[in-house]
Design brief:
Length: 636
C-alpha cells in the first residue's frame, strides 16, 4: 500500500521517538496506531547504534493480512527514508526486509518450535490443523468423552444429575459447553492449575462462602443501586413533565423505600437482614400517574414497574435464598466435579487424537512456544526465561505488537519471556477486541495501560501515549461516535472511561485535498422500521429454525434490506439522475459524485443474513459483492 509521507502529530512522534521504555499506544480505530508502529520500526532500523538490522525486530500481528500489510507499510516507509538520503544502510535493510520477522503470533510460534523441535520432543513434520478439521475432531472426541464417562462407575450418577433435563442436542446443546470450556482453557497459561482450582471450588459445600459469594454480593449491591437509579429517574421525569405529585409520593413508600432500606442494610453489613427484606417484598401495583400525556405516562409506568419487578426477582437468586442454597450445596459440588472431569477427559482424548495424526492446533503452537521459552525450574507464578529465550532476546532487540487488545494470557507470557523489558511497543484499542472467543482479554492490555505513565520521566513503568486525532473519518461521524461512547463507556460498565483523552478529534483539514461539502455535518441517519415480520424472525431464530421454510412471509430482515437498497439508489441518484452528495476521490484528489463502490453495508454477523441482502439488492438493481467467508460448516 503506497502511502503519502506522513506528517506525524506530536503524540505520534512521542511514541515513535521514545527509547529505553516499553511504549503503550492506546487509541481507537483510524488514529494511526499501525502507522506509528511501522514508523517506529523504520526509525529504529535506521539507527544502526540501537538496531543492527531489520532482522533484529520482531513485529507481531493477529492476522496474516495484517502481517502482510505491515510489511508493505514498513517497506514503503523504508523506501521513503532511503530516497531521502540514499543511505547504504537503509538500502540493505530494504533488501533484508523480506526475511524480517513480521508475522502473526501463530506463525512466529510455529517457526520457533520448528527451529527448536528437538528441545520439545516434537516430530518436526507436524502439520497445523485447520478450523474445520478441528471442529470435526472435537465433535468426535466429545462423543467419545461422554461414552467413556457413562462406562465409568464413579461418575455415572453425577453425570446423570448433570445432564438431567438439560438440552442435549449435539450441535449446540449443553455438552457443547465442554468444548467451549476446553477452548477457553487454550488461552489460560496452565490448564493443570485451572483444573485444580475448579476441583477445589467443587469441594466447597457452600460455594458462596468463597470469592464467588463475595462477587455475588457485589452483584446484588450493584443491582439494587441500578434499580434505585431507575426509580429516581422516573420520579424526576414525572416531576419535570408536570405529573401528579401524589403519584410521586406513593411511589416513594411502595417502590423506593424498600430498595433504599436494603441498600442501607447492605452498607451496614447486615447481609441476612437485606436478603430477608428482599424475600419478603410484596410487589406493589404500579398505577399510571395522572396528568401526563401519552406515551410518556405509559413509559413512566412501565419503567417503574420493571424496576420493582427486578427488585422482586432478586429473591430468586441462589445467594439470597437459604433454601436454595441448601439444595445447591448438595448438588452443585458433584456437578462441578463431574464437569471438570469431563473437560479433563476431553482434553486428554483430544490431545491423543491430534498426536495420532501428528498435528497441532493454534493453541498448541502457543503452548509449545511458551514451554520452550520458560525455564522449567521456575515456578508458574514467577516464570523465568529459558536459555532459548535468553538467546532470542539477543536476536530480537525490539518487539512491536499490533492490536494488543487481542492478546491472550499465553501470548502475553510469551512476550514477557522474549523481552527483558523496555523494548516492547504495543498498540491497541481497549474498546475493541475481536478475539474474545479465543481467550483474548482486553483486560491484559488495559492493565498494562494502567500501569504505564504518560510522563516520560517515569519511563520505568512504560510510557503511555494516547492518540485521538482520527485520520479516517469526518467530523460528523466522530461527533456521533463521541456522543454515543461518552454515554455508554464508563469505568464501572466497560472498565474504560470515555474521558477527554478518548474523545476523537478530526484531523486538521488537509489543504491539498478537496473537502466534501458541508464539512461532514449531519451525516448520520437513523431509520426506524415498523415491526412487520419482526416477531416471526425472532421466534424462528430463537427456535433455531430457518425462515426459508416460509418463503411467502417477508421477514424484517428482508424489509430492512429493501429499505437500505432504496436508500442507496437515492444516494447515487438512480431515478433522479443526480447523486445526493459528493465524496473525496483519494486517487484523483478531487470531489466526485458518490457511486455504488463507495458504499458499504456492515452487519453484526454475516452468516445467513448476508444472503437476504444480496438477493434483495440484486432485485433492486443495486450491484453488490459480499465478503461472507463462511467456512464449510457455516456454508452448509
Ligand atoms: N499523522 C498523520 N497524518 C496523516 N495521515 C495519517 C497520520 N497518521 C496516520 N494517518 C493515516 O490514517 C489512516 C489510518 O491509520 P492506521 O495506522 O491504519 O490507524 P489505526 O491502526 O489506528 O486504525 C492511514 O491511512 C494512515 O496513513
Ligand atoms: Mg491498525
Amino acid at each position: 500500500m503506497a502511502e503519502k509521507r506522513i506528517e506525524w502529530t506530536e503524540q505520534q512522534k512521542r511514541a515513535i521517538d521514545a527509547r529505553g521504555a516499553d511504549v503503550l499506544v492506546t487509541a481507537s480505530a483510524g488514529t494511526g496506531k499501525t502507522a506509528v508502529l511501522s514508523g517506529r520500526c523504520v526509525d529504529i532500523v535506521s539507527d544502526k547504534s540501537i538496531c543492527p538490522d531489520v532482522w533484529s525486530i520482531l513485529v507481531l500481528t493477529f492476522t496474516e493480512a495484517a502481517a502482510e500489510q505491515m510489511r508493505c507499510r514498513i517497506a514503503g516507509q523504508l523506501r521513503d527514508a532511503f530516497l531521502e538520503n540514499r543511505d547504504a544502510h537503509l538500502r540493505r535493510q530494504l533488501m533484508l526486509l523480506q526475511g524480517a520477522e513480521i508475522s502473526t503470533i501463530h506463525s512466529f510460534c510455529k517457526r520457533l518450535i520448528t527451529e527448536y523441535f528437538y528441545k520439545l520432543d516434537l516430530d518436526p513434520a507436524f502439520s497445523v490443523i485447520d478450523a474445520d478439521e478441528q471442529k470435526l475432531l472435537k465433535m468426535e472426541v466429545l462423543e467419545k468423552t461422554i461414552d467413556r464417562a457413562w462406562e465409568q462407575n464413579g461418575i455415572r450418577d453425577a453425570l446423570e444429575r448433570l445432564l438431567y433435563r438439560r438440552d442435549l442436542r449435539t450441535n449446540d446443546g449443553f455438552l457443547f459447553r465442554i468444548i467451549e470450556l476446553s477452548d477457553f482453557l487454550d488461552g489460560v497459561v496452565s490448564r493443570e492449575s485451572w483444573y485444580e482450582k475448579a476441583s477445589l471450588l467443587a469441594e466447597l459445600t457452600n460455594p458462596f462462602t468463597a470469592d464467588l459469594g463475595e462477587k455475588q454480593k457485589k452483584n446484588v449491591a450493584a443491582k439494587l443501586q441500578s434499580i434505585l437509579d431507575q426509580l429516581n429517574h422516573v420520579r424526576r421525569l414525572c416531576e419535570s413533565e408536570g405529573g401528579d405529585v401524589g403519584w410521586d409520593e406513593k411511589l416513594q413508600d411502595s417502590h423506593v423505600a424498600p430498595v433504599v432500606k436494603c441498600i442501607e442494610m447492605l452498607k451496614a453489613g447486615h447481609w441476612d437482614k437485606c436478603t430477608g427484606a428482599i424475600r419478603n417484598f410484596q410487589k406493589p401495583t404500579t398505577r399510571k400517574a395522572k396528568g401526563l400525556p401519552e406515551p410518556i405516562a405509559s413509559l413512566i409506568q412501565s419503567t417503574a414497574k420493571n424496576a420493582v419487578e427486578a427488585f422482586a426477582e432478586l429473591s430468586e437468586l441462589a445467594i439470597v435464598n437459604p433454601g436454595y442454597l441448601d439444595r445447591l450445596g448438595g448438588s452443585v459440588g458433584p456437578q462441578t466435579a463431574v464437569l471438570v472431569e469431563l473437560i479433563k477427559k476431553f482434553d486428554q482424548l483430544y490431545g491423543q487424537a491430534k498426536r495420532a495424526v501428528n498435528c497441532l492446533d493454534f493453541a498448541d503452537l502457543e503452548h509449545y512456544a511458551l514451554r520452550l521459552l520458560t525455564d522449567e525450574a521456575s515456578s508458574e507464578d514467577e516464570p523465568a526465561p529459558s536459555q532459548t529465550a535468553l538467546s532470542l532476546r539477543q536476536r530480537y532487540k525490539h518487539i512491536a505488537v499490533d492490536e494488543y487488545q487481542d492478546i491472550n494470557a499465553v501470548q502475553q507470557r510469551i512476550l514477557e519471556m522474549l523481552s527483558p523489558g523496555g523494548n516492547i511497543l504495543g498498540v491497541g484499542d481497549g474498546k475493541q477486541s475481536i478475539y474474545a472467543f479465543r481467550g483474548a482479554m482486553p483486560d491484559i492490555f488495559l492493565e498494562q495501560v494502567k500501569l504505564a505513565s504518560s510522563d516520560p520521566g517515569n519511563a520505568l513503568v512504560g510510557l503511555r501515549v494516547d492518540l485521538n486525532v482520527n485520520f479516517r473519518s469526518t467530523k460528523g461521524i466522530l461527533d456521533f461516535v463521541n456522543d454515543i461512547f461518552s454515554r455508554i463507556m464508563t469505568e464501572s460498565f466497560t472498565k474504560i472511561d470515555y474521558d477527554e483523552s478518548s474523545r476523537l478529534k478530526p484531523a486538521p483539514a488537509d489543504k491539498s485535498k478537496a473537502q466534501a461539502p458541508g464539512g461532514g455535518k449531519n451525516i448520520i441517519e437513523f431509520h426506524i422500521l415498523d415491526k412487520i415480520g419482526k416477531s416471526r424472525d425472532s421466534q424462528n431464530e430463537q427456535a433455531g429454525e430457518s425462515e426459508d421454510e416460509n418463503p411467502d412471509i417477508v421477514t424484517s430482515r428482508q424489509t430492512q434490506a429493501a429499505m437500505i437498497a432504496r436508500r442507496i439508489r437515492r444516494m447515487v441518484g438512480v431515478d433522479t439522475g443526480k447523486a445526493e452528495f459528493q465524496v473525496n476521490d483519494e486517487q484523483q484528489g478531487t470531489l466526485r459524485d458518490v457511486e455504488y463502490r463507495d458504499i458499504v453495508v456492515l452487519m453484526r454477523s454475516l452468516a445467513k443474513k448476508a444472503n437476504d441482502y444480496v438477493e434483495i439488492f440484486r432485485l433492486a438493481g443495486v450491484p453488490v459483492s459480499c465478503q461472507a467467508t463462511a467456512g464449510y460448516f457455516e456454508a452448509t
